[in-house]
Amino acid sequence: MRIATWNINSVRLRIDNLVRWLKSAEPDLLCLQEIKCQNEQFPRQAIEDAGYNCVVHGQKSWNGVAILSRHPIEDTHTNLPGSSVDEQSRYVEAVISTKDGVLRVASIYLPNGNPVDTAKYPYKLEWMDRLTAHVRERLLLEEPLVLAGDYNVIPAAEDVHNPASWTEDALFRRETRDKFNTLLNLGLTDALRATTDAPGQYSFWDYQAGAWQRNLGLRIDHLLLSSQAADRLTSVHIDKEPRSWDKPSDHTPVVADFAIEAR
DNA sequence: ATGACCTTCTAGGAAGGA
């Protein structure tokens, strides 16, 4: 079972890149973020023609998440529980059947939070609290659970080219990393860090200032695993190739393989 | 180098991103 996450930065603009990558990488499941369209605008036909079912949770103009699956999607769930309904589409969950029971996958687009002196930062922190509360409940199910997405969190200094200049940024602030660690401490495994401690494993490079050419990147796209998923993890890699294509997203896919067979 | 991008919505820039 191959599960990937990719912030596509407009699925309509990049549908050709997306189909090209699906055909070459052959993921069983792909979690997309920043689809930047409403459900009815989603390029469903091109994706179904490539052999994928989809669950889409979009909105006008911004944000939006989706999950593509080669296998039947049994159940879906959108939004996080919380005090108020979230107007921003940032969370969708899907369940598929495997030979050993269900597999649950979420596509997550965690708020950026910048600038930190605006309401955007407390919104990010509150959203992280709601995610943690929801995941705490999901873990009681004792299922293989893969929480894949753009977390907008740089977990550690080795995940950014120049950490000193990021200490006050919403992606790397102490408070942000503390909340990310609280989530991890529920018992989740950061898939990439389960396989390597190498620095510079970036998943995002800004469009500006030749960041890609100079390899000035960030690691902010993560797959966090329940113990039942982590036990079956066989390999993880960041596929940098789509970042080199024409008209790329500023993010590139992170891919994890599991010893789990679809039914 | 006080430089440098990209997308949506909509018709010119504003807003959002990271």
Automatic annotation (TrEMBL):
<dbReference type="InterPro" id="IPR004808">
    <property type="entry name" value="AP_endonuc_1"/>
</dbReference>
<keyword id="KW-0479">Metal-binding</keyword>
<keyword id="KW-0460">Magnesium</keyword>
<dbReference type="InterPro" id="IPR005135">
    <property type="entry name" value="Endo/exonuclease/phosphatase"/>
</dbReference>
<dbReference type="InterPro" id="IPR020847">
    <property type="entry name" value="AP_endonuclease_F1_BS"/>
</dbReference>
<dbReference type="InterPro" id="IPR037493">
    <property type="entry name" value="ExoIII-like"/>
</dbReference>
<dbReference type="InterPro" id="IPR020848">
    <property type="entry name" value="AP_endonuclease_F1_CS"/>
</dbReference>
<protein>
    <submittedName>
        <fullName>Exodeoxyribonuclease III</fullName>
        <ecNumber>3.1.11.2</ecNumber>
    </submittedName>
</protein>
<comment type="similarity">
    <text>Belongs to the DNA repair enzymes AP/ExoA family.</text>
</comment>
<dbReference type="InterPro" id="IPR036691">
    <property type="entry name" value="Endo/exonu/phosph_ase_sf"/>
</dbReference>
<dbReference type="GO" id="GO:0008311">
    <property type="term" value="F:double-stranded DNA 3'-5' DNA exonuclease activity"/>
</dbReference>
<keyword id="KW-0378">Hydrolase</keyword>
<feature type="domain" description="Endonuclease/exonuclease/phosphatase">
    <location>
        <begin position="4"/>
        <end position="251"/>
    </location>
</feature>
<dbReference type="Pfam" id="PF03372">
    <property type="entry name" value="Exo_endo_phos"/>
</dbReference>
